[in-house]
Amino acid sequence: MKYQVIEEDGFKYIETGQGETLVLLHGLMGELSNWELVIEQFKDRYRVVVPILPIYDLPILTLGVKALSRYVHRFLKYKNYGQVVLIGNSLGGHVGLVFTVAHQEFVKALVLTGSSGLYENAFGGSFPRRESYDYIKEKVEFTFYDPATATPELVDEVFKTVNDRSRVIRILTMAKSAIRHNMAKEVSKITIPVSLIWGKNDKVTPPEVAEEFHQLLPNSELNWVDKCGHAPMMEHPQIFNVYLEKFLDRILLK
């Protein structure tokens, strides 16, 4: 990433641009770089903010989706942005949902892409062969429609993470929290505009998850990205950005 990570008062984040605020929430094993092409597209018209979710820093006994939602709440109050557009991928979408249910007054609109919260087919309860580079490579490739999207740099980063004992324990704790925290009975409370941008070939949160979100969220739209897996903003960033731009134009410029 070419953007400097700002560290202040216990928060780490990047921030660029001016205007209405877009807050991008990364997934469980996501990096800031996952959002790079989204940042590039929108930074000339919006303030784009990417907080680093403290998955590896919070006390493990309190680690969970709700703890990350509370962190986002503290961060947004600290920065005093006013209402923001929350955009979340995978676990980041789940955190965005939990936060919005609790603090809808902070959120002008919500964008979910490959969000957990209803069902996900993730790594499961363990990494049985985490010392095997080929096994981890296969797991990372599973995330995408085109395995080539799993670059050597991305696989290296995941391999390094899952072979750090402290980090892998936290990842598994976080994943179990996300699975336990099913939001089917809560999301209908979200009445603000929601855009679902979903990979047609997502094997982690399959298309029926997007369809169920669309049914449950009373003010939602559903946009499909063909030949695309769990992270549309990485695999097909141009298409993702077109959908996002149309949605932002509709809700912010009317």
End-to-end C-alpha gap: 33 Å
Sheet with the most strands: spatial strand order = 1-2-4-3-5-6-7-8
Radius of gyration: 17 Å
Number of domains: 1
Strand content: 15-25%
Can you give the helix content as a percent range? 25-40%
Structural class label? alpha/beta
CATH class label: Alpha Beta
Ranges where pLDDT stays below 50 over 5 or more residues in a row are none
Main sheet summary: 8 strands, mixed
* Mean pLDDT over the residues: 92
Assembly type of the chains comes to single chain
Number of strands: 8
CATH architecture: 3-Layer(aba) Sandwich
Task: Spell out the CATH superfamily.
Answer: Alpha/Beta hydrolase fold, catalytic domain
Number of distinct helices: 9
CATH topology: Rossmann fold
Shape: globular
| SSE series | EEEHEHEHEHHHEHEHH
